[in-house]
């Protein structure tokens, strides 16, 4: 059972739901210590007071705000907890909106909100069912770690999930990163849509969604511990090159996507879009005294370019 990170309540209207906040994710990545390579001794960060030039313990360390170059104002954790904020003890729901109307770049880590005892069960499930039936999420405000934050609440398998959100001024504008204007043909866009269709799926299950780095790191550590050669790369990855023919790359990608799904190679062939033939030019090519030939030419199928 994950440990409680924060305890408080959800507040919406006149309804209060006592809850515990627990982590919704787990970290399975490989973590390394910093060591002295000569003797494998641990290298640690020491907390040194700049004035006394000595190492200080955790009990001696607190928070301080640098008001000016020569003035630091001490602030105690108890003082932060007692600030007159309505969100200091509660997650206050302030609005409901469709999830798709929120830019994903503003959504951060997720936490599960656990009802605090049987007394909280009914209002908790009331909020869960209301969110599910409305197909909306709740936007909330709460105060953690010395600051007021914005959050998003949604229902997942009859449990409420809280996602930390970034304030609007915390998201940088991407305008300066956009490339210069380029021309895209309709055919290039159609092929890109074909590729999207071939790579579309309903879940994130499968070997391609596994953490290969962690597995490789575990194998490397086991090999070094057992004094044997670590696994080697079977095939070197290709160096990314300059895109010469965008259409050819799109068509090849569509074909490979179809092949990976076990579709026939014949189905993977992508033909060019037929070129439009002018009606006037077709009429000029036909003999004037043979109307039957004109009709035949009009029914003749067009060849791909």
Characterize the structure shown:
The chain is α+β, with helices and mostly antiparallel strands. Helices cover 25% and strands 26% of the residues. The protein is built from seven helices and 13 strands. It has a seven-stranded mixed beta barrel. A hairpin with a 2-residue loop joins strand 1 (4-12) and strand 2. It starts with a strand and ends in a 6-residue tail after the last helix. Mean pLDDT is 80; it is low at 267-271 and 273-305.
Can you write the helix and strand succession as a string?
A: EEEEEEEEHEEHEEEHHHHH
Q: What is the CA-CA span between the terminal residues?
A: 64 Å
> How many DSSP E strands?
13
Question: What oligomeric state best describes the polypeptide chains here?
Answer: single chain
Structural class: alpha+beta
The order of strands across the largest sheet is 1-2-10-13-12-11-9
The tally of helices reads 7
Shape: extended
Major sheet details = 7 strands, mixed, barrel
Question: In percent terms, what proportion of residues is strand?
Answer: 25-35%
Mean pLDDT: 80
Low-confidence spans: 267-271, 273-305
Provide the helix percentage.
Answer: 25-40%
Rg, alpha carbons: 31 Å
Provide a short characterization of the protein structure:
With 305 residues, this protein is of the alpha+beta class. Helix content is 25%, strand content 26%.
Layout of helices and strands:
Elements (H helix, E strand, L loop, with lengths): L3 E9 L2 E9 L11 E2 L4 E2 L5 E2 L4 E2 L7 E6 L2 E5 L1 H5 L8 E8 L9 E9 L5 H14 L2 E8 L2 E10 L2 E7 L20 H13 L13 H14 L20 H15 L18 H7 L5 H9 L6
């Amino acid at each position: 059972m994950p440990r409680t990170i924060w305890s408080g309540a959800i507040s919406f209207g006149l309804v209060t739901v006592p809850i515990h906040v627990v982590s919704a994710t787990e970290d399975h990545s490989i973590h390394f210590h910093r060591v002295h390579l000569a003797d494998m001794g641990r290298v640690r960060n020491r907390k040194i007071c700049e004035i006394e030039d000595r190492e200080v313990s955790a009990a001696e360390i607190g928070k301080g705000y640098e008001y000016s170059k020569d003035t630091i104002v001490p602030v105690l954790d108890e003082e932060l907890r007692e600030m007159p904020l309505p969100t200091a003890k509660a997650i206050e729901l302030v609005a409901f909106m469709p999830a798709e109307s929120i830019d994903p770049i503003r959504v951060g880590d997720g936490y599960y909100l656990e009802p605090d005892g049987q007394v909280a069960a009914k209002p908790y499930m009331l909020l869960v069912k209301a969110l599910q039936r409305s197909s909306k999420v709740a936007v909330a405000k709460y105060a953690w770690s010395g600051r007021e934050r914005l959050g998003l609440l949604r229902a997942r398998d009859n449990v409420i999930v809280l996602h930390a959100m970034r304030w609007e001024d915390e998201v940088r504008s991407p305008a300066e990163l956009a490339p210069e204007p380029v021309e895209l043909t309709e055919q290039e866009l159609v092929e890109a849509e074909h590729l999207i269709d071939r790579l579309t799926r309903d879940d994130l299950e499968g070997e391609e969604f596994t953490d290969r780095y962690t597995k490789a790191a575990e194998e490397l550590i086991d090999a070094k511990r057992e004094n044997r050669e670590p696994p080697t790369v079977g095939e070197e990855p290709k160096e990314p090159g300059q895109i010469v023919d965008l259409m050819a790359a799109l068509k090849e990608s569509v074909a490979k996507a179809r092949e990976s799904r076990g579709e026939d190679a014949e189905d993977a062939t992508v033909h060019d879009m037929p070129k439009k033939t002018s009606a006037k030019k077709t009429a000029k090519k036909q003999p004037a005294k043979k109307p039957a030939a004109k009709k035949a030419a009009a029914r003749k199928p067009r060849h791909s370019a």
